[in-house]
Amino acid sequence: MNDGRPRRLALSLVAMKKGDHLFLVDGSGFIFRAFHAIPPLNRKSDGLPVNAVSGFCNMLWKLLTDARDTSVGVTPTHFAVIFDYSSKTFRNELYDLYKANRTAPPEDLIPQFGLIRHATRAFNLPCIEKEGYEADDLIATYARMAEAAGADVTIVSSDKDLMQLVTANVSMYDSMKDKQISIPEVVEKWGVTPDKMIDLQAMTGDSTDNVPGIPGIGPKTAAQLLEEFGDLDTLLARASEIKQQKRRENIIANADLARLSRELVTLKVDTPIDVPVENFHLEPQDGPKLIAFLKAMEFTTLTRRVAAATETDADAVAPANVPVEWRAQARGPDLDKGEASSPTPSRASASAESAEDAAQSFIAAGKTPTEDAATAQSLAQARAQAFSTSEIDHSSYQTIRDLAALDAFIALARETGIVAFDTETTSLDAMQAELVGFSLAVADNAQDPTGTSIKAAYVPLIHKSGVGDLLGGGLVENQISTRDALDRLKDLLEDTSVLKVAQNLKYDYLVMKRHGITVQGFDDTMLMSYVVDAGAGTHGMDALSERWLNHKPIAYKDVAGSGKSMVTFDYVDIDRATAYAAEDADVTLRLWQVLKPRLAASRLSSVYERLERPLVPVLAHMEERGISIDRQILSRLSGELAQGAAALEDEIHKLAGETFNIGSPKQLGDILFGRMGLPGASKTKTGQWSTSAQVLEDLATAGHELPRKIVDWRQLTKLKSTYTDALPGFVHPETKRVHTSYALAATTTGRLSSSDPNLQNIPVRTAEGRKIRTAFVSTPGHKLVSADYSQIELRVLAHVADIPQLRQAFADGIDIHAMTASEMFGVPVEGMASVIRRRAKAINFGIIYGISAFGLANQLSIERSEAGDYIKKYFERFPGIRDYMEQTKAFARENGYVETIFGRRAHYPDIRSSNPSLRAFNERAAINAPIQGSAADVIRRAMVKMEPALEEAGLAERARMLLQVHDELIFEVEDADVERTIPLVVSVMENAAMPALDMKVPLKVDARAAHNWDEAH
Asked: Domain 345-613 class?
């Protein structure tokens, strides 16, 4: 139930006392705030969703870092993180409908519950939960125990349910808003003191928790009644005195509901506890332990921060072995112990014998059905049922150690026409990984015509004995040489008549490409899943296997070890390697059998075949090519940034009238608000002045010079550490180029993402940021060509919303922002003030992302009412946009997804959530997805068409596509061919939607050539 490490228990002898300060973190609240605040994020190595883990770790690290600043007032002496054990508690016995309206957590969140508990322990913090009780009850109990001992308590949460605990010695802290919640803040928010919050909640109820309350009584009415009658019991006893007839009758009729609701909302301050509060003594973070966890999660940025703060050599720390709990142990709020989520619809309904009968011929043939929806759905259901109940037999796997056995398996693959293929290597970096072996799997139709009997084999190539040269490390006997094996494999992988099936094929494609083999005729199960379920689940093999096959694959750590004992795959025992590798191929083939008919059943085959599958080799070739960088430019820029930051430091010190540590929030706050008395001051939970980026931006926008200089200083120091200092470390030792890695299935909308390094995130809004692009250069005799779509998302909006004014403006080549300003503000385009155009531009782009009046007001530094008037007027001038938004939300609510103009689906299941903020977030995302997703589809189509067009023009070897960055493609072109290449590239990009779609507005591409990326852009 909790963390009971011996060294923490030893501290239980030290009683809590006056002067101590206990921090109690609402861990469950942290989880959901992190999950919904952080965009979808998957661990690169296996696709595991980790956005909530990332947000949780960063929030916790910041909280600990801020709290330990001894220069700021209060620091915690004791610290614990409290979690809900499950959604079932004693309150369900009082009222069986309590929280009955809650749905299961999103699928992407389920495996993260357990990971977050591991994270808490990695931070050297108590991880507390108790079956039958909510986290709030534990927080209430510990808070009262600490208060009774004379200590102060800070509850890190913004949950109103906890406000009943606030006293002179117990406060709350909203870490997201950096806001202290004490007695005055509760009164300001709810109109009652904390001691009356229980009665107020009993009257108002809570739709989120299904607490009934008194129907029709809101917070304001409840506060007025409590002010008049004092408390709930007095109110109910004297209800006949209420003057308003309907209110009087309503309260009398629902008195019992109010009393029940009071029991439900009252937190237990006597919860049985397993760990004494004294055991929460705050210990220092264990650098190696925390870094080991962060490296296992692949959180590189936070790893660097922790390493610096704890003075730990991160390179010397191996990733921890962190188990992933997908079902029974993945406990969390609203997730019953032992349950994961509701059954997959197709699996639940696939038991009908008619479905099996209708699909039998397709199963036996191993082919996909036609696009007939009923037949395809029957097959999809039958396949899901068959493979969810079939067993995977590891003992049947074959280890192929000679060419005769390999030839026999390849012949079997040719006979069946479908083979699953997977590589085992020494690294996740496909550009540097050594090929250790490969696995193959085919359906054994002779054994079982349904296709559920699979023959799988592993071919070891360079497995070694011992660990390292000192222990031998020589090749194990009876392995086929890599050259001989690949000579046999080449014909199979390049034969288009045999379908190769892989999971995340781009990696295997690139590995084989480096060995002279170009895989042709393939399917990718990861991309199939992505097309059908983008936004509704993750697409890594392990997740798909558990979801569709009811099988948990062997974990890599189980064969290669973990932590310091981890070895690369070439040192794994061959028998264990066979079980692991052959299973990968086996599972992949089974997933293909399940997912292929789902494409047809969902009418998404064309999306997969035209937007996803063809992009695999295109991206692999781009990654293989890489791009050159000039280290000297980066070195010089690093020096310039350092000098610029130093110059700004001098200016800042002169403006401040004293020397101080600019990186110290306390010292900075004391100068800005304490001594200089600048407006907009607010304090953090510890009593220091807030100097957040938003606070400084607001002051800078208002014309204050010192905050502007500080903002500039922060930008320069970030550019230096994140880009100019880091990029040289990504240069490949052999090619001397930077090879980014593209992820096809990482976003809900279809946009690509890149990593190691992330070249899509290089800042270009400032002069210093743009200079970084000057370091990306062409090789001698070549130029870089940048081709960029102009305002593509606004053009897509004009198309999908069918806005006549916008369509006409784009057709006429008019400045769209000036036109919008003219339409809205009644000013002529000629001689228009730049500030007017800037406001129209902010609205144009803001509308695409569902900007609010608050957001627009901040962006334009105007009053919120004025921003609201702008948005209102915008919709009045362009009513089709509001119609589009409302229609899109209605479609998403009905179907759970939205579609791009090319049919790609983005799922937003939480758009029906009862949580208003979550629902609003999903509505905004659903509005934006068809626009952003359509733009992403356009550039995908352009990339797929580009290489054949260059080939046909005889330019394939002299004009090579290197990078895709949002709406931009970057090529490296021989000097003599630049003039021929640019018109071709522009034509392909501008006509990318054709012939599938004739857009109502023309696409416009700007293209230029130069020796570096910045000049070409």
From this structure: alpha beta
Tell me which residues of the chain have a pLDDT lower than 70.
1-14, 36-40, 68-74, 87, 95-106, 207-208, 326-376, 446-450, 467-473, 701-702
Query: Is the peptide bond prior to 184 cis by the omega test (within 30 degrees of 0)?
Result: no
Instruction: Give the helix ranges, DSSP H, for 254-402.
Output: 255-265, 287-297, 300-310, 345-348, 353-365, 373-389
Nearest one of 362, 498, 512, 344 to 424, comparing CA atoms: 512
Side-chain half-sphere exposure of 638, counting CA atoms within 13 A: 14
Residue 596 contacts residue 428 (beta carbons within 8 Å): no
User: Of 525, 500, 539, 497, which is closest to residue 590 (Cα–Cα)?
Assistant: 525
Task: Check residue 47 and give left, alpha or beta (phi > 0: left; psi -120 to 50: alpha).
Answer: left
* Phi and psi angles of residue 332, each rounded to the nearest 5 degrees, phi first: 180, 170
853-860 and 864-877 are packed helices; what angle lies between their axes, rounded to 10 degrees? Answer: 110
Question: Dihedral (C-alpha) 148, 149, 153, 157: value to the nearest 10 degrees?
Answer: -60
Question: In this predicted structure, what is the pLDDT of residue 371?
Answer: 34
Predicted structure pTM score:
0.62
Q: What DSSP character marks residue 390?
A: P
Output the CATH code of domain 17-133+271-341. Answer: 3.40.50
CB 181 within 8 A of CB 158: yes
Domain 17-133+271-341 and domain 765-803+879-1017 have a common topology: no
Euclidean distance between CA atoms 463 and 380, whole angstroms: 40
User: Would you say 25 and 60 are in contact if contact means Cβ atoms under 8 Å apart?
Assistant: yes
Instruction: Yes or no: say if 437 and 461 are a contact pair by the CB < 8 Å rule.
Output: yes
Give me the sign of the Cα torsion angle 601, 605, 607, 611.
positive
* Rounded Cα–Cα distance for residues 288 and 290 (Å): 6
Contact yes or no for 223/192 (Cβ under 8 A): yes
Hey, where are the domains in the chain? 17-133+271-341, 345-613, 765-803+879-1017
Polymer length of the chain: 1017
Under DSSP, the state recorded for 954 is T
Between CA 650 and CA 642 the distance in angstroms is 13
SS3 436: strand
Nearest one of 481, 457, 467 to 560, comparing CA atoms: 467
624 CB-contact burial (10 Å; exposed 0-12 / middle 13-18 / buried 19+): middle
What is the pairing mode between strands 21-26 and 78-82?
parallel
Gap between the Cα atoms of 325 and 319, Å rounded: 18
CB-CB contact of 83 with 329 (8 Å): no
β-pair partners for 458: 399, 439
Q: In what order do the strands lie in the sheet with 179-181?
A: 127-128, 78-82, 21-26, 152-156, 170-174, 179-181
Kindly report, residue by residue over 693-722, the tens digit of the pLDDT: 777 877 776 678 888 888 888 888 888 888
Residue 6: other Cβ atoms inside 10 A? 6
The predicted pLDDT at position 283 comes to 86
Q: Print burial letters for 204-233: b (CB count within 10 Å at least 16), e (below 16).
A: bbbeebbbbbbeebebebbbebbeebeebe
Can you say whether the dihedral through the CA atoms of 683, 686, 690, 693 is positive or negative?
Answer: negative
Question: Are the beta carbons of 750 and 994 closer than 8 angstroms?
Answer: no
CA dihedral 209, 210, 211, 214 (to 10 degrees): 140
d(Cα 593, Cα 570) in Å, to the nearest integer? 31
Q: What is the CATH number of domain 765-803+879-1017?
A: 3.30.70.370
Residues 525/34, Cβ–Cβ less than 8 Å: no
Return the pLDDT at 565. Answer: 86
pLDDT given for residue 975 in this prediction = 96
- Between strands 435-443 and 741-743, the pairing is unpaired
The three-class DSSP label of residue 578 is helix
